[in-house]
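Ticket #4471: structure export looks truncated?
Reporter: QA, pipeline team
Priority: medium

Steps to reproduce: submit the single chain below to the structure queue and open the exported record.
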Amino acid sequence: MLDLKEKTVLPAFIDGHEDDPDDHGILLIEDQLELDRIVQRIHDMNYQACIHANGDLAIEMSLNAIEQAQQKRPGLTPRHRIEHCTMITDNILKRMHQLKVMALPFASYLWQHGKKLKPFYGQRAHRMFAHNSFLNAGVRVAASSDHPVGLQSPLLGVQCMVTRQSSTGEIIGPQEKISIDEAFKMYTAYAAYATGEETIKGTLSLGKLADIVVLNRDPWSIPPEEISQIGVVNTIVDGKIVYAHEE
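Actual output as written to the record:
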């Protein structure tokens, strides 16, 4: 299991970490001007910039670069996004909404690493992976796992977004819980939008790819803590059964 104390994986924070305020984490691109140049080049080609940023310092730098690129070429709309976008603030939410920047936070990370979070992040842990805050702020958001850092199971991700519960039973950030409906959209309709493929997949609609799974239990009729235990009966890709559970 990943050790969050490894300096190479600590997010970059403006105010430092809970257990070491002088440790502001790691920036792989430390120069704002360098990041600006990279994002500008991507934006000018009307490509989607997918920037890996966890801490508020890294996210603010990413938004600075995106804002500058949009100001220089305002006619382009390539749907820039921030991968993980873990530690947000009210100002970050406001800027993301204004700039139309998407967020792709972890979904299952709380379950896998929940007991480690507060020693490093204190009360900020309650606002990590802030799916509900993104929705309330009008920020486009989709689910992700970053496997193996976060377990890849979409059903575990749905469970975490609905319960905000770790594997040890601790509830972290209950205000960030979302409904089962919204949680499944994170992996379907919203995920398709995040990749610019909402016209061909993401919903069960006429003319779209017939990629679906059949589950052996109804997620809406069981305790949310059991969603990750639901089994898959069939997996269908492009209308063809590619997996069938054998009794």
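Status: closed, not a bug. The export was complete when the record was re-opened. Leaving a note from the reviewer for reference: Residues 56-72 form the longest helix (17 residues).
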